[in-house]
Design goal:
Shape: elongated
Largest sheet: 6 strands, antiparallel, barrel
Number of strands: 12
Distance between the termini: 65 Å
Mean pLDDT: 84
Number of helices: 4
Strand content: 35-45%
Radius of gyration: 21 Å
Order of helices and strands: EEHEEEHEHEEEEEEH
């Protein structure tokens, strides 16, 4: 099975290094020197990691055969893909690979059906479940512990406790201006 583990960003310096947007909780395992990664687009790879280092909080990688800024810049926006055993599980207890979450049924803590996870969107601040509702519309559910209260892989479901307005249109809007207007009447 193949997992996207990073996206190549811009070139760094003149010796072929690139910044990397990490998309794995195990970068030391997946993005270490000597790792051979498939790419999307496939024409950019496979790429073998020659070296890696952290600079100002960002991971920088250099690939075998890429020796200058021009070569590094040509790789920009390329996805790095690792081959992973489908039976392998993440190291952490509450960690999941995307393929484990795709197609899970999403229900509220009260048992109300919300839909099915069709995609995981990896944003800089948090991950989002893209949930397709039975009527074909989509809702975005932040993958945070306060909202996603349980992942049950055996039952193939994710239990959520959504705040008002996340999955329905009944958001409660409170404004001090509205309260003051009520008193003035």
């Amino acid at each position: 099975m193949q997992l996207v583990v990073a996206r190549i960003g811009r070139a760094h310096g003149i010796k072929g290094e690139v910044t990397v947007e990490v998309r794995t909780d195990e970068p030391e395992l997946r993005l270490g020197p000597g790792a051979v990664l498939a790419t999307d687009p496939a024409s950019a790879g496979p790429l073998t990691i020659a070296s890696g280092r952290v600079h100002s909080g960002r991971l920088l990688l250099r690939f075998e055969g890429v020796h200058d800024r021009t070569g590094a810049e040509a790789l920009r926006n390329t996805l790095l893909i690792a081959d992973v055993d489908p039976e392998e599980l993440p190291e952490g207890e509450d960690e999941y690979y995307d393929h484990q979450l795709i197609d899970l049924d999403v229900v509220t803590k009260d048992g109300e059906e919300v839909g099915r996870i069709t995609e995981i969107s990896h944003l800089p601040t948090q991950d989002l479940f893209v949930v397709e509702r039975p009527d074909g519309t989509e809702v975005f559910v932040p993958f945070v512990e306060k909202i996603v209260t349980e992942i049950d892989l055996e039952e193939q479901r994710a239990v959520i406790d959504p705040p008002p307005g996340l999955i329905d249109d009944r958001a409660e809007v409170a404004s001090s201006r509205d309260a003051a207007g009520d008193d003035a009447r």
